[in-house]
Every structure is written in C-alpha cells, then in structure tokens.
Amino acid sequence: MPIAKVIVLLGAGVVAQAGAVEIPPPVQACVACHGASGEGTAQGPVLAGLSTTYISAQIENFIAGRRSNPVMSAIAQGYSDASLRNQVAAYFAGQGTTPKLLLRGQPIETTAAQQLYYQGDLARNLPACYSCHGPSAVGGGPFPRLAGQQPAYLKEQLLAWKNRQRSGDPDNLMGNIAMKLSADEIDALAGYLSGIR
To answer: Which one, of 159, 197, 154, lies nearest residue 177 by Cα?
Structure first.
C-alpha cells in the first residue's frame, strides 16, 4: 500500500477518535503525525500556532526536495495545489495558544541555552535566536515557533541545518548559525525551547 494511502487511513482513524473536532478534509492526512489540533506527536512536530507563511513554505520545501523525510516528502506531493497548502497552513496557524511572553527588563536565568537564545555569542558571530524567533520563541512570518516543540525534533532540525541536510531559508541563515553550535549547545537549546509553554 502506498505510504500516502497509509497516512490518510491513519489520519481518518485519528479524526474518528477526535470526535467533536471539525477537521477540514485537506488537513486530515496531517493529523496522524501532527495531532488533531497540531499539538505534535512522537512522529511529527507541533504545528499549532506556527504562521501560515512558515507552514506553507515548509510544505513547498518538502515538495521541492529542500527538506527530506520519507513520510513527509511523500505526503507533501499531494499538496502541490497552493489552495490545499493554504487550507492546511490556516488551520494549524489558528490552533494552540501563545506562551506567556517575556517582557523586556524581566530578569531571566542565565543558562547557556538562554544566553544563546537571548544574547547570542558575538565572539563567534552568532546572533541571538530571539532576533528572528521572538522574545518567547513564538516565531512569526517566515520564522517558526520553537516554544513547546519536542526536544528530539528541535535537535534533529538543528543537526540537519548544521550538516547541510536542510535548506530553504534566505541566505542559508540557519545553516550558518547551526554550523557554529556545538553538540552540547544544540542539546541545551532543544531542551530549553521545548520547555517554553
């Protein structure tokens, strides 16, 4: 059985279990891995609250081969029609809640991950992560929400940028940043960001 058909069948099972949740037909193939409300699962990252721009761009990246995942690459081919992509992006962008924002001037802990996120490292020409992903890692526009994402997924993506296995961002910004991060820093950032609720 083709992989896309398996995912659609799995998605239909999740829809049946979800009960009262109204899931648009183009979104149903996504729920098996990303959850009925985009809350994420062990198989797929959190999509709830990501911007429509970001979600749509990532589907396009899978279609074009700039991102690679055996399941997602196959699923994405079914969304070559922009109107379908837009429905999926709009649905997941409208799900979830925004984490409590950190306000300027509030004291923050000074773990290594927080220093990288809020201050960067000028000596290594590393910008602060919040410059693009926002003060509470909620993202916006072309920049994804990182707050509350699964740590394994965040680590996997940072390693993909670092190892040049992922692309699709302007001027390879994330690739250049990730290449400068150590394995310990990647672990620390993944743990810190996943804990932001």
So the answer is: 159
